[in-house]
């Protein structure tokens, strides 16, 4: 039903001709035994976003505030109100003016994505900094399974490439993993070989890189016809070519990278959290559906299903009204930051230690080292936060 709704909103999935008529083209990805993935070439997420933004633009009662960043949730407990704790609003930073605005609402939904940017190497965009989870935690919502970070086995390895994912569908269409000497190292690791689940493949690549001393691995799909690759993976073909890699003629250099946050804000069947008035959907939420290692392409399905469930739940359970006027953001004696280099250094240190100590393979010793360093960073950031005005960083 959710897929049909997407199509009605203008989503265009790839089709193929079969017995004289067109049918939806199904792809296969890691851990799958059959073809089951609807896709739009190799830019499915972009096409879904396009269709949804167009649908939003058609509704005059929906206001989209661009260049705004949520800072903190407002709860009755924070306001010292003598009633059961509930979420009643949110503080939002206007990046263009630098002002923090106050929004009042009886229901608030977090759809802020994951936390991939806390790692040095990630497939995620710069905005995936875990803000939604942090805000929910500070507000009193339950957080679960944050240790379950999925690492995608194949991000493009290139000094100038940033967060570019080599889709699992490349291996689903016959791409094989090999080391720099051309040896296929997934043989004997898993029955599905190069199409094994992501955690298995990511660990295998990490192990092979450490064993050989190589700084990356290869995905080879050159045995497929060039025209097929250019049609099935137009974005991957074009992007790789811009970095000097012709996927029709040479293997693609890849490395594992942080990809998906399987844990998050714990929610029920309708996206509701334990904090009244607060919902969470998408990667920021922990529904339990993905376990410790999400199956490829299930994230979009989960987001669609839970978004609909959350909306229906709100309509079926009309919220109590909240005060229209909430306290304004108090900046106190904070001044404009005088040395942003401190923030950039803290970011760099956090991302490096997370990659080195809390990455694909972990140990108690590494985790203890990470905890010590994170606590030191917390003290520095806390002091910086109270001294200077809020920025997007």
Automatic annotation (TrEMBL):
<comment type="similarity">
    <text>Belongs to the FAD-dependent oxidoreductase 2 family. NadB subfamily.</text>
</comment>
<comment type="pathway">
    <text>Cofactor biosynthesis; NAD(+) biosynthesis; iminoaspartate from L-aspartate (oxidase route): step 1/1.</text>
</comment>
<keyword id="KW-0662">Pyridine nucleotide biosynthesis</keyword>
<keyword id="KW-0560">Oxidoreductase</keyword>
<dbReference type="GO" id="GO:0034628">
    <property type="term" value="P:'de novo' NAD+ biosynthetic process from L-aspartate"/>
</dbReference>
<dbReference type="InterPro" id="IPR037099">
    <property type="entry name" value="Fum_R/Succ_DH_flav-like_C_sf"/>
</dbReference>
<dbReference type="InterPro" id="IPR005288">
    <property type="entry name" value="NadB"/>
</dbReference>
<dbReference type="Pfam" id="PF02910">
    <property type="entry name" value="Succ_DH_flav_C"/>
</dbReference>
<dbReference type="InterPro" id="IPR015939">
    <property type="entry name" value="Fum_Rdtase/Succ_DH_flav-like_C"/>
</dbReference>
<dbReference type="GO" id="GO:0008734">
    <property type="term" value="F:L-aspartate oxidase activity"/>
</dbReference>
<dbReference type="InterPro" id="IPR036188">
    <property type="entry name" value="FAD/NAD-bd_sf"/>
</dbReference>
<feature type="domain" description="FAD-dependent oxidoreductase 2 FAD-binding">
    <location>
        <begin position="3"/>
        <end position="300"/>
    </location>
</feature>
<protein>
    <recommendedName>
        <fullName>L-aspartate oxidase</fullName>
        <ecNumber>1.4.3.16</ecNumber>
    </recommendedName>
</protein>
<dbReference type="Pfam" id="PF00890">
    <property type="entry name" value="FAD_binding_2"/>
</dbReference>
<keyword id="KW-0274">FAD</keyword>
<feature type="domain" description="Fumarate reductase/succinate dehydrogenase flavoprotein-like C-terminal">
    <location>
        <begin position="348"/>
        <end position="383"/>
    </location>
</feature>
<dbReference type="InterPro" id="IPR003953">
    <property type="entry name" value="FAD-dep_OxRdtase_2_FAD-bd"/>
</dbReference>
<dbReference type="InterPro" id="IPR027477">
    <property type="entry name" value="Succ_DH/fumarate_Rdtase_cat_sf"/>
</dbReference>
<keyword id="KW-0285">Flavoprotein</keyword>
């Amino acid at each position: 039903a959710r897929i049909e709704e997407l199509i009605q909103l203008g989503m265009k999935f790839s089709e193929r001709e079969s017995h004289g008529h067109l049918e939806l083209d199904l792809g296969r990805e890691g851990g799958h035994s059959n073809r089951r993935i609807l896709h739009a070439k190799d830019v499915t997420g972009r096409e879904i976003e396009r269709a949804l933004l167009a649908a939003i633009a058609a509704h005059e009662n929906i206001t989209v505030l661009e260049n705004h960043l949520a800072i903190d949730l407002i709860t009755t407990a924070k306001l010292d109100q003598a009633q059961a704790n509930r979420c009643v609003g949110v503080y939002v930073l206007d990046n263009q003016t630098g002002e923090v605005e106050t929004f009042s609402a009886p229901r608030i939904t977090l759809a802020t994505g994951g936390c991939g940017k806390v790692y040095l190497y990630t497939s995620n965009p710069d905005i995936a900094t875990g803000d939604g989870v942090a805000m929910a935690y500070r507000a009193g919502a339950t957080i679960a399974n944050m240790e379950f970070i999925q690492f995608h086995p194949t991000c493009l390895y290139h000094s100038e490439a940033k967060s570019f994912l080599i889709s699992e569908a490349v291996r689903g269409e016959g791409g094989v993993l090999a080391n720099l000497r051309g040896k296929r190292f997934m043989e004997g690791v898993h029955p599905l070989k190069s199409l094994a689940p992501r955690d298995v493949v990511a660990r295998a690549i990490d192990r092979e890189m450490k064993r050989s001393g190589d700084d990356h691995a290869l995905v080879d799909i050159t045995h497929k016809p060039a025209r097929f690759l250019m049609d099935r993976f137009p974005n991957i073909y074009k992007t790789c070519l811009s970095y000097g890699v012709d996927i029709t003629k040479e293997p693609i250099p890849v490395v594992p990278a942080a990809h998906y946050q399987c844990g998050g804000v714990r929610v029920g069947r309708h996206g509701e959290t334990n904090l009244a008035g607060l919902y969470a959907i998408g990667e920021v939420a922990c529904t339990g559906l993905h376990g410790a290692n999400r199956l490829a392409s299930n994230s979009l399905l989960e987001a669609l299903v839970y978004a609909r469930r959350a909306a229906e739940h709100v309509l079926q359970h009309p919220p109590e009204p909240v005060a229209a006027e909430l306290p304004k953001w108090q900046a106190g004696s904070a001044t404009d930051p005088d040395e942003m280099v401190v923030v950039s250094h803290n970011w760099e240190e956090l991302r490096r230690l997370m990659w080195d100590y809390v990455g694909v393979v972990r140990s108690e010793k590494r985790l203890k080292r990470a905890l010590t360093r994170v606590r030191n960073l917390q003290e520095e950031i806390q002091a910086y936060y109270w001294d200077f005005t809020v920025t997007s960083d």
